[in-house]
Protein backbone atom coordinates (compact mmCIF):
# COMPACT_ATOMS: atom_id res chain seq x y z
CA UNK A 1 0.00 0.00 0.00
CA UNK A 2 1.36 3.40 -0.96
CA UNK A 3 0.99 6.01 1.78
CA UNK A 4 2.08 8.97 -0.35
CA UNK A 5 -0.67 10.66 -2.40
CA UNK A 6 0.08 11.70 -5.95
CA UNK A 7 1.46 15.26 -5.88
CA UNK A 8 -0.31 16.08 -9.14
CA UNK A 9 -3.78 15.78 -7.64
CA UNK A 10 -6.22 18.71 -7.81
CA UNK A 11 -5.91 21.67 -5.41
CA UNK A 12 -9.03 20.46 -3.56
CA UNK A 13 -7.34 17.20 -2.56
CA UNK A 14 -6.06 18.40 0.79
CA UNK A 15 -8.94 20.69 1.76
CA UNK A 16 -10.90 20.09 4.93
CA UNK A 17 -14.39 18.73 4.53
CA UNK A 18 -17.05 21.43 4.25
CA UNK A 19 -20.73 20.58 4.10
CA UNK A 20 -23.49 22.72 2.59
CA UNK A 21 -27.01 22.27 3.95
CA UNK A 22 -30.44 23.82 3.48
CA UNK A 23 -29.25 27.20 4.80
CA UNK A 24 -26.87 27.44 1.80
CA UNK A 25 -29.47 26.30 -0.74
CA UNK A 26 -30.67 29.71 -1.90
CA UNK A 27 -27.14 30.87 -2.67
CA UNK A 28 -26.23 27.68 -4.53
CA UNK A 29 -29.41 27.48 -6.58
CA UNK A 30 -28.95 31.13 -7.55
CA UNK A 31 -25.55 30.11 -8.90
CA UNK A 32 -27.40 27.57 -11.05
CA UNK A 33 -29.48 30.40 -12.53
CA UNK A 34 -32.79 29.70 -10.79
CA UNK A 35 -35.21 32.59 -10.37
CA UNK A 36 -36.49 33.59 -6.91
CA UNK A 37 -39.77 31.64 -7.17
CA UNK A 38 -37.90 28.56 -8.42
CA UNK A 39 -35.45 28.79 -5.52
CA UNK A 40 -38.34 29.01 -3.06
CA UNK A 41 -39.90 25.87 -4.53
CA UNK A 42 -36.58 24.05 -4.16
CA UNK A 43 -36.38 25.25 -0.54
CA UNK A 44 -39.87 23.82 -0.01
CA UNK A 45 -38.85 20.39 -1.31
CA UNK A 46 -35.77 20.50 0.95
CA UNK A 47 -38.01 20.87 4.00
CA UNK A 48 -39.41 17.39 3.22
CA UNK A 49 -36.46 15.54 1.67
CA UNK A 50 -32.89 15.88 2.97
CA UNK A 51 -30.27 18.08 1.31
CA UNK A 52 -26.54 17.95 1.92
CA UNK A 53 -23.62 18.49 -0.42
CA UNK A 54 -19.95 19.27 0.09
CA UNK A 55 -17.19 21.42 -1.32
CA UNK A 56 -15.66 18.63 -3.41
CA UNK A 57 -18.93 17.90 -5.22
CA UNK A 58 -19.63 21.62 -5.68
CA UNK A 59 -16.14 22.54 -6.89
CA UNK A 60 -14.99 19.42 -8.75
CA UNK A 61 -18.01 17.46 -10.02
CA UNK A 62 -20.74 19.95 -10.97
CA UNK A 63 -20.48 21.82 -14.27
CA UNK A 64 -22.14 25.05 -13.19
CA UNK A 65 -22.32 26.30 -16.79
CA UNK A 66 -24.65 23.35 -17.48
CA UNK A 67 -26.67 23.66 -14.25
CA UNK A 68 -29.46 23.05 -13.45
CA UNK A 69 -29.36 20.35 -16.16
CA UNK A 70 -25.92 19.03 -15.21
CA UNK A 71 -26.37 15.38 -14.09
CA UNK A 72 -24.35 15.75 -10.89
CA UNK A 73 -26.31 18.89 -9.97
CA UNK A 74 -29.53 16.91 -10.44
CA UNK A 75 -28.01 14.07 -8.45
CA UNK A 76 -27.58 16.16 -5.28
CA UNK A 77 -29.88 19.19 -5.53
CA UNK A 78 -33.65 18.93 -4.92
CA UNK A 79 -35.84 19.67 -7.92
CA UNK A 80 -38.99 21.76 -7.60
CA UNK A 81 -41.16 19.11 -9.26
CA UNK A 82 -39.90 16.13 -7.24
CA UNK A 83 -43.04 16.33 -5.07
CA UNK A 84 -46.70 16.99 -6.00
CA UNK A 85 -47.24 20.66 -6.83
CA UNK A 86 -49.86 21.06 -4.09
CA UNK A 87 -47.42 19.84 -1.43
CA UNK A 88 -44.68 22.12 -2.72
CA UNK A 89 -47.04 25.12 -2.77
CA UNK A 90 -48.17 24.40 0.79
CA UNK A 91 -44.62 24.37 2.17
CA UNK A 92 -43.63 27.37 0.04
CA UNK A 93 -46.53 29.36 1.52
CA UNK A 94 -45.35 28.48 5.02
CA UNK A 95 -41.81 29.59 4.20
CA UNK A 96 -43.07 32.81 2.63
CA UNK A 97 -45.16 33.63 5.70
CA UNK A 98 -42.31 32.98 8.14
CA UNK A 99 -43.95 29.94 9.74
CA UNK A 100 -42.33 28.40 12.80
CA UNK A 101 -40.08 25.36 12.63
CA UNK A 102 -42.82 23.37 14.37
CA UNK A 103 -45.36 24.26 11.66
CA UNK A 104 -42.89 23.41 8.91
CA UNK A 105 -42.02 20.07 10.53
CA UNK A 106 -45.68 19.13 10.95
CA UNK A 107 -46.40 19.85 7.29
CA UNK A 108 -43.24 18.06 6.17
CA UNK A 109 -43.97 14.99 8.30
CA UNK A 110 -47.47 14.75 6.83
CA UNK A 111 -45.97 14.61 3.33
CA UNK A 112 -43.21 12.18 4.36
CA UNK A 113 -45.80 9.75 5.68
CA UNK A 114 -47.18 9.41 2.13
CA UNK A 115 -43.76 8.55 0.65
CA UNK A 116 -43.30 4.99 1.98
CA UNK A 117 -40.24 5.89 4.09
CA UNK A 118 -39.11 2.30 4.78
CA UNK A 119 -39.83 0.12 1.73
CA UNK A 120 -39.54 -3.66 1.37
CA UNK A 121 -40.34 -4.48 5.00
CA UNK A 122 -37.14 -2.96 6.36
CA UNK A 123 -38.60 -2.02 9.75
CA UNK A 124 -40.66 -5.14 10.36
CA UNK A 125 -39.97 -8.10 8.06
CA UNK A 126 -36.17 -7.62 7.98
CA UNK A 127 -35.41 -7.05 11.67
CA UNK A 128 -34.41 -10.25 13.53
CA UNK A 129 -35.43 -10.92 17.12
CA UNK A 130 -33.68 -12.54 20.05
CA UNK A 131 -35.76 -15.42 21.30
CA UNK A 132 -38.52 -14.29 18.93
CA UNK A 133 -39.20 -11.36 21.24
CA UNK A 134 -36.65 -8.53 21.40
CA UNK A 135 -35.63 -6.99 18.06
CA UNK A 136 -31.88 -6.69 17.46
CA UNK A 137 -31.28 -2.93 17.04
CA UNK A 138 -29.58 -1.71 13.89
CA UNK A 139 -29.61 -5.16 12.26
CA UNK A 140 -31.49 -6.44 9.23
CA UNK A 141 -31.43 -10.08 8.15
CA UNK A 142 -33.48 -10.49 5.00
CA UNK A 143 -31.42 -13.17 3.22
CA UNK A 144 -29.98 -16.03 5.22
CA UNK A 145 -26.36 -15.51 4.10
CA UNK A 146 -26.17 -11.76 4.69
CA UNK A 147 -26.68 -9.51 7.70
CA UNK A 148 -26.93 -5.75 7.29
CA UNK A 149 -25.66 -3.53 10.09
CA UNK A 150 -26.37 0.20 10.47
CA UNK A 151 -23.63 1.71 12.68
CA UNK A 152 -24.93 4.66 14.66
CA UNK A 153 -22.04 6.95 13.72
CA UNK A 154 -22.44 6.13 10.02
CA UNK A 155 -26.00 7.31 9.49
CA UNK A 156 -25.21 10.36 7.38
CA UNK A 157 -23.30 10.84 4.11
CA UNK A 158 -20.74 13.17 2.60
CA UNK A 159 -23.58 14.29 0.31
CA UNK A 160 -27.14 13.08 -0.23
CA UNK A 161 -28.44 11.67 -3.50
CA UNK A 162 -31.83 13.09 -4.44
CA UNK A 163 -33.08 9.59 -5.32
CA UNK A 164 -31.83 7.86 -2.13
CA UNK A 165 -34.17 5.15 -0.85
CA UNK A 166 -32.74 5.66 2.66
CA UNK A 167 -33.78 9.33 2.79
CA UNK A 168 -35.78 8.64 5.97
CA UNK A 169 -32.51 8.09 7.87
CA UNK A 170 -31.55 11.73 7.33
CA UNK A 171 -34.60 13.86 8.14
CA UNK A 172 -34.16 14.02 11.92
CA UNK A 173 -37.18 11.88 12.86
CA UNK A 174 -36.17 9.36 15.54
CA UNK A 175 -39.09 7.09 14.60
CA UNK A 176 -37.72 6.77 11.06
CA UNK A 177 -34.06 6.32 11.97
CA UNK A 178 -32.51 2.85 12.06
CA UNK A 179 -29.11 2.40 13.78
CA UNK A 180 -27.13 0.80 16.61
CA UNK A 181 -23.76 1.20 18.34
CA UNK A 182 -23.93 -2.23 20.02
CA UNK A 183 -21.19 -4.16 18.25
CA UNK A 184 -21.25 -6.91 20.92
CA UNK A 185 -24.84 -7.74 20.07
CA UNK A 186 -24.01 -7.86 16.35
CA UNK A 187 -21.07 -10.21 17.00
CA UNK A 188 -23.20 -12.44 19.22
CA UNK A 189 -25.94 -12.57 16.60
CA UNK A 190 -23.54 -13.51 13.77
CA UNK A 191 -21.77 -16.11 15.94
CA UNK A 192 -25.09 -17.77 16.71
CA UNK A 193 -26.11 -17.91 13.04
CA UNK A 194 -23.57 -20.03 11.15
CA UNK A 195 -25.55 -19.56 7.93
CA UNK A 196 -24.42 -15.91 7.89
CA UNK A 197 -21.33 -15.66 5.68
CA UNK A 198 -21.39 -11.93 4.96
CA UNK A 199 -21.92 -8.75 6.99
CA UNK A 200 -22.75 -5.55 5.11
CA UNK A 201 -22.08 -2.22 6.81
CA UNK A 202 -24.53 0.29 5.43
CA UNK A 203 -26.24 3.57 6.29
CA UNK A 204 -26.06 6.37 5.55
CA UNK A 205 -22.45 5.79 4.68
CA UNK A 206 -20.10 3.83 6.96
CA UNK A 207 -17.13 5.69 5.46
CA UNK A 208 -18.31 8.91 7.07
CA UNK A 209 -16.86 7.34 10.25
CA UNK A 210 -13.23 7.80 11.22
CA UNK A 211 -10.89 4.83 11.24
CA UNK A 212 -10.92 4.59 15.03
CA UNK A 213 -14.69 4.14 15.03
CA UNK A 214 -15.07 1.82 12.07
CA UNK A 215 -12.27 -0.42 13.41
CA UNK A 216 -14.25 -1.02 16.60
CA UNK A 217 -17.10 -2.37 14.48
CA UNK A 218 -15.09 -4.44 12.01
CA UNK A 219 -12.22 -5.98 13.98
CA UNK A 220 -14.36 -8.14 16.35
CA UNK A 221 -16.00 -9.77 13.32
CA UNK A 222 -12.65 -11.00 12.00
CA UNK A 223 -12.54 -13.65 14.72
CA UNK A 224 -15.75 -15.33 13.51
CA UNK A 225 -14.62 -18.33 11.51
CA UNK A 226 -17.75 -18.94 9.45
CA UNK A 227 -17.86 -15.30 8.30
CA UNK A 228 -16.40 -15.14 4.81
CA UNK A 229 -16.88 -11.52 3.75
CA UNK A 230 -17.21 -7.99 5.06
CA UNK A 231 -18.95 -5.53 2.77
CA UNK A 232 -18.96 -1.75 3.02
CA UNK A 233 -21.69 0.07 1.11
CA UNK A 234 -20.45 3.58 0.35
CA UNK A 235 -20.67 6.62 -1.92
CA UNK A 236 -17.47 8.09 -0.46
CA UNK A 237 -15.35 7.33 -3.53
CA UNK A 238 -17.62 9.57 -5.61
CA UNK A 239 -18.43 12.26 -3.03
CA UNK A 240 -15.27 12.51 -0.88
CA UNK A 241 -12.31 10.49 -2.26
CA UNK A 242 -10.07 12.43 0.13
CA UNK A 243 -11.26 9.90 2.71
CA UNK A 244 -8.78 7.42 1.20
CA UNK A 245 -6.01 9.76 0.04
CA UNK A 246 -5.41 12.94 2.05
CA UNK A 247 -7.68 12.80 5.12
CA UNK A 248 -5.66 12.49 8.37
CA UNK A 249 -6.74 8.88 8.90
CA UNK A 250 -6.64 7.79 5.26
CA UNK A 251 -3.57 5.59 5.72
CA UNK A 252 -4.93 4.04 8.92
CA UNK A 253 -8.16 3.23 7.11
CA UNK A 254 -6.27 1.43 4.36
CA UNK A 255 -4.29 -0.50 6.97
CA UNK A 256 -7.61 -1.63 8.44
CA UNK A 257 -8.62 -2.87 4.97
CA UNK A 258 -5.33 -4.78 4.76
CA UNK A 259 -6.03 -6.33 8.15
CA UNK A 260 -9.43 -7.60 6.97
CA UNK A 261 -7.85 -9.19 3.89
CA UNK A 262 -4.97 -10.65 5.93
CA UNK A 263 -7.52 -12.31 8.25
CA UNK A 264 -8.70 -14.42 5.32
CA UNK A 265 -11.94 -12.52 4.81
CA UNK A 266 -13.04 -11.02 1.53
CA UNK A 267 -13.37 -7.23 1.80
CA UNK A 268 -15.97 -6.11 -0.72
CA UNK A 269 -16.09 -2.37 -1.18
CA UNK A 270 -19.57 -1.70 -2.61
CA UNK A 271 -19.03 1.62 -4.37
CA UNK A 272 -21.97 3.66 -5.61
CA UNK A 273 -21.28 5.51 -8.86
CA UNK A 274 -24.29 7.10 -10.55
CA UNK A 275 -22.61 8.81 -13.52
CA UNK A 276 -19.29 8.62 -15.42
CA UNK A 277 -18.47 12.21 -14.43
CA UNK A 278 -17.88 11.02 -10.88
CA UNK A 279 -14.79 9.12 -12.10
CA UNK A 280 -13.14 12.02 -13.96
CA UNK A 281 -11.10 13.66 -11.15
CA UNK A 282 -7.60 12.24 -10.69
CA UNK A 283 -8.28 12.22 -6.96
CA UNK A 284 -10.96 9.52 -7.20
CA UNK A 285 -8.76 7.46 -9.51
CA UNK A 286 -5.96 7.62 -6.93
CA UNK A 287 -8.42 6.63 -4.18
CA UNK A 288 -9.49 3.59 -6.22
CA UNK A 289 -5.87 2.60 -6.77
CA UNK A 290 -5.06 2.85 -3.06
CA UNK A 291 -8.09 0.83 -1.95
CA UNK A 292 -7.33 -1.90 -4.47
CA UNK A 293 -3.71 -2.04 -3.27
CA UNK A 294 -5.00 -3.33 0.09
CA UNK A 295 -6.48 -6.44 -1.51
CA UNK A 296 -10.05 -5.17 -1.28
CA UNK A 297 -12.35 -5.79 -4.24
CA UNK A 298 -14.35 -2.76 -5.42
CA UNK A 299 -17.75 -3.60 -6.90
CA UNK A 300 -19.80 -0.81 -8.45
CA UNK A 301 -23.54 -0.31 -8.44
CA UNK A 302 -26.23 2.35 -8.86
CA UNK A 303 -29.92 2.72 -9.66
CA UNK A 304 -31.19 3.73 -13.07
CA UNK A 305 -32.51 7.27 -12.57
CA UNK A 306 -34.56 9.39 -14.94
CA UNK A 307 -32.86 12.69 -15.95
CA UNK A 308 -29.50 11.54 -14.50
CA UNK A 309 -28.36 8.30 -16.16
CA UNK A 310 -31.31 7.02 -18.25
CA UNK A 311 -29.14 6.57 -21.34
CA UNK A 312 -27.34 3.36 -22.38
CA UNK A 313 -24.28 5.39 -23.45
CA UNK A 314 -23.92 6.61 -19.86
CA UNK A 315 -23.93 3.07 -18.46
CA UNK A 316 -21.60 1.77 -21.17
CA UNK A 317 -19.13 4.54 -20.38
CA UNK A 318 -19.48 3.97 -16.64
CA UNK A 319 -18.92 0.20 -16.80
CA UNK A 320 -15.97 0.50 -19.17
CA UNK A 321 -14.36 3.15 -16.98
CA UNK A 322 -14.84 1.08 -13.85
CA UNK A 323 -13.33 -1.96 -15.55
CA UNK A 324 -10.36 0.09 -16.77
CA UNK A 325 -9.60 1.08 -13.18
CA UNK A 326 -9.88 -2.48 -11.87
CA UNK A 327 -13.38 -2.31 -10.41
CA UNK A 328 -16.11 -4.89 -10.97
CA UNK A 329 -19.47 -3.72 -12.42
CA UNK A 330 -22.05 -5.35 -10.16
CA UNK A 331 -25.62 -4.00 -10.28
CA UNK A 332 -27.97 -1.73 -12.16
CA UNK A 333 -30.85 -1.22 -9.75
CA UNK A 334 -34.41 -0.09 -10.39
CA UNK A 335 -35.42 3.00 -8.39
CA UNK A 336 -37.21 1.80 -5.25
CA UNK A 337 -40.83 2.45 -4.36
CA UNK A 338 -40.11 5.21 -1.85
CA UNK A 339 -39.66 8.97 -1.74
CA UNK A 340 -40.05 10.73 -5.09
CA UNK A 341 -40.17 7.46 -7.05
CA UNK A 342 -42.66 8.82 -9.58
CA UNK A 343 -40.19 11.56 -10.48
CA UNK A 344 -37.11 9.36 -10.91
CA UNK A 345 -38.47 5.97 -11.94
CA UNK A 346 -37.87 4.51 -15.40
CA UNK A 347 -40.50 1.96 -16.61
CA UNK A 348 -39.21 -1.62 -16.49
CA UNK A 349 -39.53 -2.12 -20.26
CA UNK A 350 -37.39 0.96 -20.90
CA UNK A 351 -34.97 -0.01 -18.12
CA UNK A 352 -34.43 -3.40 -19.73
CA UNK A 353 -33.71 -1.80 -23.12
CA UNK A 354 -31.21 0.62 -21.56
CA UNK A 355 -29.47 -2.23 -19.74
CA UNK A 356 -29.41 -4.45 -22.83
CA UNK A 357 -28.12 -1.72 -25.15
CA UNK A 358 -25.28 -0.90 -22.75
CA UNK A 359 -24.53 -4.55 -21.90
CA UNK A 360 -24.09 -5.60 -25.53
CA UNK A 361 -21.43 -2.91 -26.07
CA UNK A 362 -19.06 -3.92 -23.28
CA UNK A 363 -16.62 -6.82 -23.14
CA UNK A 364 -17.23 -10.00 -21.23
CA UNK A 365 -15.14 -8.68 -18.35
CA UNK A 366 -17.77 -6.00 -17.68
CA UNK A 367 -20.68 -8.41 -18.05
CA UNK A 368 -20.41 -9.24 -14.39
CA UNK A 369 -23.10 -6.58 -14.00
CA UNK A 370 -26.67 -7.68 -13.25
CA UNK A 371 -29.88 -5.84 -13.85
CA UNK A 372 -32.22 -4.20 -14.03
CA UNK A 373 -32.75 -5.47 -10.48
CA UNK A 374 -35.56 -4.60 -8.06
CA UNK A 375 -34.84 -4.91 -4.31
CA UNK A 376 -38.44 -5.63 -3.42
CA UNK A 377 -40.14 -7.17 -0.38
CA UNK A 378 -39.83 -10.83 -1.55
CA UNK A 379 -36.24 -10.38 -2.80
CA UNK A 380 -34.02 -9.10 -5.60
CA UNK A 381 -35.88 -9.58 -8.86
CA UNK A 382 -34.06 -9.22 -12.18
CA UNK A 383 -35.79 -8.37 -15.46
CA UNK A 384 -34.22 -10.82 -17.92
CA UNK A 385 -36.10 -9.70 -20.99
CA UNK A 386 -39.30 -9.22 -22.93
CA UNK A 387 -40.56 -11.99 -25.20
CA UNK A 388 -43.69 -13.68 -26.53
CA UNK A 389 -44.81 -17.03 -25.12
CA UNK A 390 -47.88 -18.88 -26.41
CA UNK A 391 -49.04 -15.70 -28.12
CA UNK A 392 -48.72 -13.52 -25.00
CA UNK A 393 -46.15 -10.74 -24.59
CA UNK A 394 -44.44 -11.14 -21.22
CA UNK A 395 -41.62 -10.02 -19.00
CA UNK A 396 -39.18 -12.82 -18.13
CA UNK A 397 -37.89 -12.43 -14.56
CA UNK A 398 -35.97 -14.35 -11.92
CA UNK A 399 -34.91 -13.99 -8.29
CA UNK A 400 -31.24 -13.18 -7.79
CA UNK A 401 -31.89 -13.40 -4.05
CA UNK A 402 -35.05 -14.12 -2.08
CA UNK A 403 -36.50 -14.40 1.41
CA UNK A 404 -37.45 -17.93 0.40
CA UNK A 405 -34.22 -19.51 -0.94
CA UNK A 406 -36.27 -21.96 -3.00
CA UNK A 407 -37.22 -19.10 -5.31
CA UNK A 408 -33.64 -18.14 -6.20
CA UNK A 409 -32.83 -18.70 -9.87
CA UNK A 410 -36.33 -19.90 -10.81
CA UNK A 411 -37.75 -18.02 -13.81
CA UNK A 412 -41.27 -16.61 -13.75
CA UNK A 413 -43.35 -14.45 -16.05
CA UNK A 414 -45.44 -11.30 -15.84
CA UNK A 415 -47.79 -9.67 -18.30
CA UNK A 416 -46.03 -7.03 -20.36
CA UNK A 417 -46.94 -3.53 -19.21
CA UNK A 418 -45.07 -0.62 -20.77
CA UNK A 419 -45.93 1.64 -17.80
CA UNK A 420 -44.98 -0.74 -14.97
CA UNK A 421 -42.06 0.66 -12.95
CA UNK A 422 -41.95 -1.75 -10.00
CA UNK A 423 -42.55 -5.39 -9.17
CA UNK A 424 -45.95 -4.72 -7.60
CA UNK A 425 -47.15 -2.98 -10.78
CA UNK A 426 -46.97 -6.35 -12.56
CA UNK A 427 -49.59 -9.08 -12.97
CA UNK A 428 -49.05 -12.84 -13.45
CA UNK A 429 -48.95 -14.10 -17.04
CA UNK A 430 -49.76 -17.26 -18.98
CA UNK A 431 -52.82 -18.16 -16.96
CA UNK A 432 -51.14 -18.01 -13.54
CA UNK A 433 -53.30 -16.62 -10.75
CA UNK A 434 -50.45 -15.47 -8.51
CA UNK A 435 -46.69 -14.96 -8.41
CA UNK A 436 -44.30 -17.53 -6.90
CA UNK A 437 -43.88 -15.66 -3.61
CA UNK A 438 -47.64 -15.24 -3.06
CA UNK A 439 -49.86 -17.73 -1.27
CA UNK A 440 -51.60 -19.93 -3.83
CA UNK A 441 -55.40 -19.76 -3.88
CA UNK A 442 -57.08 -23.08 -3.09
CA UNK A 443 -57.20 -25.32 -6.14
CA UNK A 444 -54.81 -23.19 -8.22
CA UNK A 445 -51.49 -24.01 -9.80
CA UNK A 446 -48.34 -22.89 -8.00
CA UNK A 447 -47.86 -19.82 -10.19
CA UNK A 448 -44.64 -21.04 -11.78
CA UNK A 449 -44.51 -21.86 -15.46
CA UNK A 450 -42.52 -24.83 -16.63
CA UNK A 451 -40.63 -23.54 -19.71
CA UNK A 452 -40.35 -27.12 -21.05
CA UNK A 453 -44.11 -27.12 -21.65
CA UNK A 454 -44.09 -23.95 -23.76
Your description of this structure?
The chain is α/β, with parallel strands linked by helices and 454 residues long. It has three domains: 19-114, no CATH class; 117-303, Alpha-Beta Barrel (TIM Barrel), CATH 3.20.20.70; 334-453, no CATH class. The protein contains 14 helices and 15 strands. Strands 5-6-7-8-9-10-11-12-13-14-15 form an eleven-stranded mixed beta sheet. Strand 10 (297-304), helix 12 (312-324) and strand 11 (328-334) form a beta-alpha-beta unit. Helix 8 runs parallel beside helix 10 (250-262) and helix 12 (312-324) packs across helix 14. The longest helix has 13 residues, at 36-48.
**CATH topology of the largest domain, what is it called?**
TIM Barrel
Rg of Cα set: 22 Å
Unreliable residue stretches: 1-7, 440-454
Number of helices: 14
Q: What would CATH call the class of the largest domain?
A: Alpha Beta
Number of domains: 3
**CATH architecture call of the largest domain:** Alpha-Beta Barrel
β-strand number: 15
Average pLDDT, to the nearest integer? 89
Write a concise keyword list for the protein shown above:
single chain, 454 residues, alpha/beta, TIM Barrel, eleven-stranded mixed beta sheet, two-stranded antiparallel sheet, 14 helices, 15 strands, 29% helix
Amino acid sequence: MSVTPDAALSPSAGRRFRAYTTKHLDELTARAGLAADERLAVQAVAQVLPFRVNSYVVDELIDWDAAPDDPIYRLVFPQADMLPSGDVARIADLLRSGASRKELNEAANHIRATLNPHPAGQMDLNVPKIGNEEPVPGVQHKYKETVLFFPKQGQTCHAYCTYCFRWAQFVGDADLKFASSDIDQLVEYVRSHPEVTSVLFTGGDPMIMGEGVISRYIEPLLEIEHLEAIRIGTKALAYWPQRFVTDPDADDTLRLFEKVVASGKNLAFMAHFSHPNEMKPELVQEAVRRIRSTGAVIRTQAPLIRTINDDPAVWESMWRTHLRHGMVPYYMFVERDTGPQDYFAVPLAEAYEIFRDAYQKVSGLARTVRGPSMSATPGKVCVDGVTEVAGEKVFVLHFIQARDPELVGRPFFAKYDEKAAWLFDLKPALGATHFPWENAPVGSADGLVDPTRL
